[in-house]
Model the fold of this input.
Amino acid sequence: MRHGLTLGAVALALLIAPAAARAQVSLFQGQEISLKLDGYIRAISVLHDLGFQLPDEWGPTPDTETGLHGQVGRLRWHLEGPRWRVEVHNRLQLRITSQSTGEPVVGFGVGAEPPRLADLRTYFLERDRLMAWHDIDRLSLTANVGPADLTVGRQPITWGTATLFPVADLWTTFGPFEQDTDEKPGIDAARTLLYPGAGIELDLVVAHRGDLEDLSAGARITASRASADIWGGAGKFWRQIMAMGGITLLGDHSRWRAEAVLPWDMDDRSFQQPRITLGAERIGGTRSIGVEYHYNGIGTRHTDRYLLTSLDPRVQRGETYYLGRHYAGAIGTWSPDQQNRLLLSLTTMANLGDGSLVVSPNLNYDLGQAVRLSLGGLISAGASPRFATSPPFVDPRSEFRLYGDALFTLISVYF
Done:
C-alpha cells in the first residue's frame, strides 16, 4: 500500500506541474536510448435525470436526479532504444457521486475493463460515494525482431473499423458514452505484427481473459489497396470460436464498410447468431456524416427479456453494450474552418425493434494547444418501464429510455 501511495503522489505532482505545455517532455536523450513523458488531466461533471420513479412499494428509492464529478490523470512514459520500446501508463482516477446509484451512464470507466494477470490498482479512498484510485494501464515491451514487431504486456488492441456498433473489436472496447477515449484500456497479451508484403499485415494475438479456459487467441490478415481495405480473421474468444471479416471501399470523399462475426459456442457446440455492421461515411471540407446499421446476434427481439439479456456473460464483459437485435445510428460533425478548433457533433442511435433512441450532442472548443473544453448531453426517448410487485417485476418496454437524460461538461489539459 505504501509503495502505491508514493507512486500515486509522484504521478499526481508530475501531472499538475507541467500541464501548461502540450509538447512531449524529454527526460533523457542519449545516443541510443531516450526517456520521454506526456499525458493529460481530464475532469467531467454530470447532471443525470433518470426520468422515471421506482414504485413506493419497493421501499426507499434514490432520487431520480443525480450528480457526478470525475477526474482522470494519465502519465505516459516512453523508454526507447534502437530496436525496442517500453511503455508505461500511470492512471489516477477520482469519482464523486451525489448518491449511491450504481454505475454512471456517462463519464469515465463506463465500459467493461478486461481482466488482468496482475491487479495493479491501489485505492486511496473507497467509500460509498467517493472513490480515488491509481492503476497501471499500460506496461509493455515492444521489440523489433527481424521482420516482426513483438509486444508483450498490457497494451491496447483494436480490430475492426465500425464506429458506433463494433462487432470485431473484442479485445478491449469503449462503452458507448465513455468520455476518456484518448487511450483504450490495456489488455494483458502477447502480440506479433508481421508485414509479409506491400500493404499486407498479419496480426497474431494471445490474450489473458481471467481463467485458463477463457484464454483467447486470434489471427487477422489485412490487405490495403488504393480503392479498398480487406481483412479476415479467426480465433478463440472466451468459450467461442469466431470467424470474422470486413471490407472498406474507399472513395474520394466517401467510405463504405461492412464487417461481420460468426461465433460457434464451444460449450453448446452450435453456431450463435451472427453480428453484422454496415456503414457509410461522407467526408468533405469542414463537415462529415456517417451512418451504420447493426444486427446484434446477442440481443433479443422481446423487450420483456432485456433484463435477462443484460445478465448474459457476453454483455457483462463488453462484447456488446446493446440488448436488442436491430439498430441504426448516425454521427455528424461540423466545424467553421479546417483547423477544427470549434467542433460540433451529433450522435444518434436507435433501437429499431422497440422504437427507442438516444441523441448525444457535443460541442468541443480548443483553447490553444493544451486545453480543450466540451459541453455535451444525452437525450433519450422511448416507452418508460412498467413496474409490478409480482414477477417479473419490471417490463423495460424500451432500451434507450432506461438511459435517462444527462448534461455534462468536460475539460481536458494536455502536456
